[in-house]
Write a structure and sequence with these properties.
The chain contains eleven helices and 15 strands. With 379 residues, the chain is of the alpha/beta class. β11, α5 and β12 form a beta-alpha-beta unit. It is globular and about 45 Å long. Its EC number is 3.1.1.47.
């Protein structure tokens, strides 16, 4: 039996914001739909949490991003809940972000109580897994923008692996030290279990309707892709290896490891890395490339760094801080302007998803794109 609790992001309106300095993160790229966001806690009673050591069932947090065909009313909401915002304000103050930066951020969402009928489109499903020691909420604007192109998106927090996870009752779980090879392998296996579990829940009509009301997912399992950043990229490939019904995967700047390096994949997979992260510099990319037996592509983004593939560059840009941060911050945020970097990610991710889940064309992916000269086609 699965225990599940849901609240809409509208609940965040009850949490205080610094209204005088509130900043809205924009939707980037070719927005076709408004997006409603719901946050949920899911518990897998058939699986123990390997990090607690007390026989507790595995519980995770997810956010769903639901494209709405006719949104009657939008409103501004907090970017993340208060304890998470405070934690990240403290964490990133070391990199020059003023205290209160995360607490000042907002996003514009569709009011789930004020919307018209859902689109009749059978939207594919996208599951997202972020970097180790990183909250799923650091990718909210990016994933909202991807959903706005016509995809049902679920982002997953992996407790004890993420730096902080805030549950619906206000309980927070901070990350453990996951640095040894054994710990990383355990984290990878746990993440794969989380992804498999979430996908299975899409066949549960009650849960699916809470996350994506009006889409009747309990009656069908849509085409699905898994996207991951950093360790999440390795997770995407391993999840595909375990669940052959996953249609495609995308690795954003993550090194690869695990059984998939030898077993390979027989479904489409894409690699996108920061400057100088290619098959020539990362042996794991070379290894997985040789084992992908279906459509594949590799892209290098000049001027990008590891955390360019998150909301952080956009956050520093909208706060007017990108040119003021210490030079060493470029080592993990890159030098590409934040709005442009987010548009780049959304463009290439949505083109990949259109190709593998909607029978789109690969021309936009493999041909030179004048809008994003930073992107170099590899392999």
């Amino acid at each position: 039996m699965v225990y599940q609790t849901v609240f809409t992001i509208a609940t965040l309106a009850l949490w205080p914001l610094r209204a005088a300095s509130a900043t809205v993160l924009p939707v980037a790229g070719p927005k076709r739909f408004d997006v409603a966001i719901t946050t949920a806690s899911l518990t897998d009673s058939d699986r123990l949490d390997p990090f607690t050591g007390d026989g507790r069932a595995r519980s995770i947090m997810v956010s769903s991003f639901n494209p709405v065909a006719s949104c009657l009313q939008t409103h501004l909401e907090a970017y993340m809940p208060p304890a998470t915002a405070a934690f990240l304000d403290d964490k990133f103050s070391a990199y020059g972000l003023p205290n209160g930066s995360f607490r000042s951020l907002q996003i514009e969402t569709c009011n789930t109580t004020q919307r018209g009928p859902c689109s009749s489109d059978n939207f594919p499903l996208v599951l997202f897994s972020g970097a180790s020691e990183t909250s799923r909420l650091i990718y909210t604007s990016m994933l909202q923008s991807i959903a706005a192109t016509g995809y049902l998106v679920v982002s997953i927090d992996h407790p004890y692996d993420a730096d902080v996870v805030e549950f619906l009752d206000g309980t927070t779980v901070t990350g453990k030290d996951i640095s040894s090879d054994e710990d990383i392998e355990l984290a990878l296996a746990t993440r794969v279990g989380d992804i498999t579990f979430v996908r299975q829940q899409m066949t549960n009509a009650t849960i699916a309707d809470n996350l994506f009301p009006g889409h009747q997912l309990g009656n069908r399992l849509p085409k699905t892709a898994v996207i991951g950043h950093s360790l999440g990229g390795a997770t995407a490939a391993s999840a595909m290896l375990q669940d052959v019904s996953i249609n495609a995967g995308l690795n954003l700047d993550g090194s690869m490891f695990g059984k998939v390096l030898e077993a390979g994949l027989d479904r489409p997979f894409m690699l996108m890395g920061h400057e100088n992260k290619t098959q020539e510099t990362d042996p794991s990319w070379k290894a997985i490339w040789l084992q992908i037996k279906e459509w594949k592509a590799e892209f290098e983004v000049k001027g990008a760094a590891h955390y360019s593939f998150s909301d952080l560059p956009l956050i520093t840009a909208v706060l007017g801080l990108q040119e003021q941060l210490p030079a060493e911050v470029a080592e993990f945020l890159g030098t590409i302007e934040g709005h442009h970097m987010t548009e780049l990610i959304v463009e290439y991710v949505s083109m990949f998803l259109d190709l593998v889940l909607k029978n789109g064309s690969e021309n936009g992916l493999i041909e030179s794109n004048d809008n994003f000269p930073e992107v170099v086609v590899g392999a």
